[in-house]
């Protein structure tokens, strides 16, 4: 058995494919590639596939990651080559590397995520700029998520409004158990309709595992 | 309406607000996207239910692959949106569009509906309306797409004849190319739409309803359905492919979960059993088998192309496939250790079926399904599905003793001449099966009785008989509910109000076009969805047009009555259907026709095809 880590981009073709369905997308990619996945024992054997951090429906991403356990000693370079050729539209593989079997689980390594938000609808940029500065200088932003109050401010690591049109916001948010920042919530706080924005994940920050 | 260039942009705003937005964006593995300008014909295949139901449809998949194999044609898909998405589309002015290129449907040359069952009719109208295409054929001109339809329900095309320009009767694999060719020729010629319809009517297996006139008797029955002039054929005979082509292998793999996520391969078409209630068994004759090699190679290619983890080997009666053992062995050896789930539905009630299933059973095990359809010898003889009760019990014992805990038994009530004793026998039989299971595996035993209500279908020996009256059906269902209450026993049944619609639409005539349109205009759609079906809306629509469903479903038809579908020939002769009906009344069975040809009419009809393709792929006798 070996464990590999795949970094990939998720494009518009899979923008509305949720995390559970992405599991199937990957399982089928390996099956088409004739690369044997390691299956669990029992009545309903499942392949062991672990995604780094769930991506909300509707987002695209430049920085997805997952770990896969395989029943083969095939060198990782060969695996990478085959996967690149069998990946379906919407997946662009960036890197495939071997990971120690006993290493820390991938989701536990993630600490932060970066997003690039493009506001497609015309917007008053001066007002937006004012609101972002205001947001960053506030010490406490109380919000409600699923009936529970929380403070959004410490989840925002950085927020930059780029020059030019259309308006683009670059955002770094924490991604820790119980402290995961969501780009839509930042947008709502800025008075921007999240449905009018194109949101792309541009990076995942991992701690050394 | 919103033009093509804007549709994607608009969708981005709408999709986050609807359930399962993945239904509306295409982009799946194996979808085919061609340059719009590079082809002569733009074909849109529409399955008129939601994506989740439509994507797994095998008929659509077969035609999609065949049409896209043509250099001069592109074929794209559309399904109907779910209610939330329909509201959003109508509000934003987004027309129904294809998933491959987001072109509005009205920009296509040909729109082809798949109509396997009648409860899709209102959805088909809804699709046309969402596409901005006039509903009725008479309101369309040269600027509109040609609207065609095919599928089992089209063997009685009359209820939808006002809306569909041309119906394909029978199998589409060859005729679809002839339709595209005729359309291209017509487009080049610049002739009128009427000329196109005329050209289509000359293709064998194509029915153009506008070229036929129906006359009625004073009692409302059909007097005749005749072509409007001598250039139009007097009747339309269904198309068949003499030899089943290799199965499709480039299945579209949806990126979201749908009802069946699998490779489906027909191992044969047709059935030799001759069950008298079975529409599929009558209209899909003759029986043609694929070779084991063609099936296994097809499965292998499809697995490589899709990565699917499930395979369904489809037919009307899998145990009857001549080389079933060889096939199952080949599949299990070739794909051993691949974590595949293989399903083989429609097995005969005998212990051999249990052996077959055991070989196919991987680690994922479900229930075991059998379809005795009736529980007394008397009734089984009438419907021509003779099974010995002891044989069923023996099969059940084999199933429970080899590790399955659940059996599903399919029955029907409302068979012709049915009595309450026949219904009581269903209860007794289910209890006996349950007891057999309990003796073997104890309290773990599960039995699911699925009891649907019989609808006498066109082109079958029962086309003359009335449907069982609603009060009688309710009484029988009450008996079943009272009699089948027990731990481990589950009963499901059909809502008699849904049966009324299915029966009227399948047995109806041209007058039903008005009813369908009125019902749709009053909000009827998704009639196949139990919680969306609007019985009241339909009854009001019948009333508005002075029609009574009882005329179509509760009336015994005289043996010489002209049926609304008599000008559509399924290859099985009416004489044969009459004979079979009489044998049913006399309680006489007719044996499997692979042992003894009963001259159903298929051979004279397709004499030439059989002569050119001798040998074992057809199960009919050879022709010299």
Protein traits:
heterodimer, A: alpha+beta, Alpha-Beta Plaits, two-stranded antiparallel ribbon, 5 helices, B: 624 residues, alpha/beta, Rossmann fold, Transcription Regulator spoIIAA, 22 helices, globular
Summed up:
The complex is a heterodimer of chains A (209) and B (624). Chain A is built from five helices and eleven strands, in the order E-H-E-E-H-E-H-E-H-E-E-E-E-E-H-E. Chain A is an alpha+beta fold and 209 residues long.
Give a verbal description of the structure.
The complex is a heterodimer of chains A (209) and B (624). Chain A is built from five helices and eleven strands, in the order βαββαβαβαβββββαβ. In chain A, strands 1, 2, 3, 4, 5, 8, 9, 10 and 11 form a nine-stranded mixed beta sheet that branches. A two-stranded antiparallel ribbon of chain A has the order 6-7. Chain A is α+β, with helices and mostly antiparallel strands and 209 residues long. Among the domains of chain B are: 4-237, Cobalamin-binding domain (Rossmann fold, 3-Layer(aba) Sandwich), CATH 3.40.50.280; 262-362 and 593-624, Transcription Regulator spoIIAA (2-Layer Sandwich), CATH 3.30.750.210. Helices cover 36% and strands 14% of the residues of chain B. The radius of gyration of chain B is 24 Å and the shape is globular. In chain B, 49% of the residues are buried. The A-B interface holds A 12-18, 20-21, 24-25, 27-32, 39, 42-45, 57-58, 88-90, 120, 194-196, 198 and B 9, 12-13, 15-17, 20-22, 24-25, 27-29, 253, 255-257, 261, 303-309, 338-339, 363-365.
Summarize the SSE layout with pairings.
The complex is a heterodimer of chains A (209) and B (624).
Chain A: E1 2-10, H1 19-32, E2 49-51, E3 60-70, H2 76-86, E4 91-99, H3 106-109, E5 110-119, H4 125-137, E6 142-145, E7 148-151, E8 156-161, E9 167-176, E10 179-180, H5 183-189, E11 197-206
Chain B: H1 4-14, E1 41-47, H2 51-54, H3 58-68, E2 73-79, H4 83-92, E3 110-114, H5 121-130, E4 146-150, E5 166-168, H6 175-189, H7 193-201, E6 206-207, E7 212-216, E8 222-227, E9 236-237, E10 263-266, E11 268-269, H8 279-283, E12 288-289, H9 292-306, E13 310-314, H10 324-334, E14 341-343, H11 351-360, E15 368-373, H12 377-383, H13 389-401, E16 406-413, H14 420-441, E17 446-453, H15 470-483, E18 489-493, H16 496-507, H17 512-521, H18 535-544, H19 549-553, E19 568-569, H20 574-585, H21 602-605, H22 607-612
Parallel strand pairs in B: 1-2, 1-3, 3-4, 4-5, 9-19, 10-13, 13-14, 15-16, 16-17, 17-18
Antiparallel strand pairs in B: 5-6, 7-8, 11-12
